[in-house]
From TrEMBL:
Transmembrane segments: none annotated. InterPro entries: ET-Flavoprotein_bsu_CS (IPR000049), ETF_a/b_N (IPR014730), ETF_b (IPR012255), ETF_beta_N (IPR033948), Rossmann-like_a/b/a_fold (IPR014729). Residues 23-211 form the Electron transfer flavoprotein alpha/beta-subunit N-terminal domain. Its cofactor is AMP. Keywords: Electron transport, Transport. One of its GO terms (biological process) is carboxylic acid catabolic process. It comes from Comamonas testosteroni. SMART domains: ETF. Pfam families: ETF. GO terms for molecular function: electron transfer activity. Belongs to the ETF beta-subunit/FixA family. Heterodimer of an alpha and a beta subunit. This is Electron transfer flavoprotein subunit beta.
Length: 249
């Protein structure tokens, strides 16, 4: 069984992003970029399934600018077998990405697609769900445990009330939550090995997908600055402030 793992190149989680002065977006010039953390968890899970012998090939895919190749090389250093870059300079929104992934699913016929539950830049939490709908595949989002047995996959998922267990038939879509695993440390020998792995590049047109954005960003603004906190003397003072200043009780 093949596993397809979509990996997104995003602003590194340690970077404090700044809004551009003209309010059209955030400034990502000269900012450190990394693999979306939830996607690292997805690659790790796919590689662990391969190490267990239930998966034969792990294919990482990234959609975006040429530099996404670096993200794919990182995925291959973790253990993905090959990479596919869907190269475009166009702004990509979740529906367009889901359509690109659907085209690759049709081509590669993976038994599982393991995505991150969300990308930490747009926080959309949409792509996996849209891909499942477009491909008419069962989905288990926010996975904290994945077990494959034959053509069935059992997934524990994190829901508001605790854990839910789903049994899905493959091909299926899974999205990862934080507790699924702890991605391995990428070693230098594996970084070197990853440079030699196969990386194919295709364009959205090759996959027959129109990626024109459907949504328009009107304005991006910094959140309002928060005032400094104060220490209260006792519970009565706290209750008084909550009632009369914050007016929340
Ligand atoms: P989102 O719906 O944008 O929060 O993204 C959810 C997941 O979809 C991510 O964790 C990735 O696995 C995948 N994804 C989103 N954008 C891309 C992209 N440009 N290239 C590859 N995978 C992506």
């Amino acid at each position: 069984m093949k596993v397809l793992v979509p990996v997104k190149r995003v602003v590194d989680y340690n970077v404090k992003v700044r809004v551009k002065s003209d309010g059209t977006g955030v400034d990502i010039a000269n900012v450190k970029m990394s693999m979306n953390p939830f996607d690292e968890i997805a690659v790790e899970e796919a590689v662990r399934l391969k190490e267990k012998g239930v998966v034969t090939e792990v294919i990482a895919v990234s959609c975006g600018v040429a530099q996404c190749q670096e993200t794919l090389r990182t995925a291959m250093a973790i253990g993905a077998d090959r990479g596919i870059l869907v190269e475009t300079d166009a702004e990509l929104q979740p529906l367009a990405i889901a359509k690109l992934l659907k085209a690759l699913v049709d081509k590669e016929q993976p038994g599982l697609v393991i995505l991150g539950k969300q990308a930490i830049d747009g926080d959309n939490n949409q792509t996996g769900q849209m891909l499942a709908a477009l491909g008419d595949m069962p989905q288990a989002t926010f996975a904290s445990k994945v077990e494959v047995a034959g053509d069935k996959v059992t997934v524990s998922r994190e829901v508001d009330g605790g854990l839910e267990t789903l049994s899905l038939s493959t091909p299926a879509v899974i999205t990862t939550d934080l507790r699924l695993n702890e991605p391995r440390y990428v070693t230098l020998p594996n970084i070197m090995k990853a440079k030699k792995k196969q990386l194919d590049t295709v364009k959205p047109e090759d996959l027959g997908v129109d990626v024109t954005p459907r949504l328009k960003t009107l304005k991006v603004a910094e959140p309002a600055k928060r005032g400094a906190g104060v220490k209260v003397a006792d519970v009565a003072a706290l209750v008084d402030k909550l009632k009369n200043e914050a007016k929340v009780i």
